[in-house]
Design goal:
With 98 residues, the chain is an alpha/beta fold. It is 28% helix and 27% strand. The protein contains two helices and five strands; from the N terminus they run βββαβαβ. A hairpin with a 2-residue loop joins strand 2 and strand 3 (41-43). Helix 1 packs parallel to helix 2 (75-87). The longest helix is centred in the middle third of the chain and has 14 residues, at 45-58.
């Protein structure tokens, strides 16, 4: 298997110095076979980008994306999902473990 040579720049979250910040959270699960689930609803790649754009446009609080990635998810699927979030203007991305 060739080494992955594509990079994706991601700004990691910065602490809030103990302050509680109100936020709106989207939950994205990325699975094998181009499978995306946003807030419990299965969506395709194109629909995912549209939903991100809609959420970013309608958000009245800071928008945060919590991402859970299946161990068998393809790198390209993950990269495309994260790119769709960034293109929609979602800057706060958290990676959530099991």
């Amino acid at each position: 298997m060739p080494a992955v040579s594509q990079t994706l720049a991601i700004d990691l979250p910065v602490g809030t110095n103990g302050r509680i910040v109100d936020k709106q959270t989207l939950r994205l699960q990325i699975g094998a076979g181009d499978l995306y689930t946003l807030d419990g609803v299965a969506v395709g790649r194109r629909d995912l980008a549209q939903r991100f754009q809609g959420a970013a446009h309608q958000a009245t609080l800071p928008l945060v994306l919590d991402v859970r990635i299946s161990p068998d998810a393809e790198y390209e699927t993950v990269a495309q999902g994260l790119t769709a979030a960034r293109n929609a203007g979602i800057a706060n991305i958290n990676f959530v473990g099991r």
